[in-house]
Amino acid sequence: MALGLGCSAKPGRAKENRTGSWRTFRPEFLHEKCTKCGLCSLVCPEGCIGEDAEGQPVPDYDYCKGCGLCAEECPSQAIEMKKEEK
Ligand code: SF4
Ligand code: SF4
Questions:
Q1: Which contiguous run of DSSP H or E holds residue 29?
Q2: pTM of this prediction?
């Protein structure tokens, strides 16, 4: 197989690549602390944080890779990273 310059694998969109299988930590959203500011959704590199009917953020764990960026950036400390249990 011919490889493109600087590329060792075929590119793929997150929709096709279920990045959730990489995860060693998972974000847990503490709705009682959440102010629904939407920042976590904006910074998520997988674009996998949606919201429920009440406007609370809800991650799609099929695509969440556990990077922790949402928890790092949440101004309300409303997201805790917990060790994934397989
Ligand atoms: S960044 Fe934090 S406070 Fe803002 S919507 Fe996400 S979980 Fe809620
Ligand atoms: S841990 Fe990373 S991939 Fe998962 S929801 Fe948060 S920002 Fe998105």
A1: strand 25-29
A2: 0.82
Query: From ligand 2's centre to the CA of 25, what distance in Å?
Result: 10
Q: Is residue 31 part of a domain?
A: yes
- Domains: count for the chain: 1
Phi, psi at 69, each rounded to 5° = -60, -40
Sequence-ordered strand ranges (E) for 34-78: 49-51, 57-59
CATH of the domain at 31: 3.30.70.20
Alpha helices in the chain (DSSP H): 39-43, 69-73
Domain that holds residue 54: 19-81
Interval 4-47: pLDDT, tens: 566 555 555 556 677 777 789 999 999 999 999 999 999 999 99
Q: Is 79 in the pocket of ligand 2 (CB under 6 A)?
A: no
Q: Does residue 63 surpass a pLDDT of 70?
A: yes
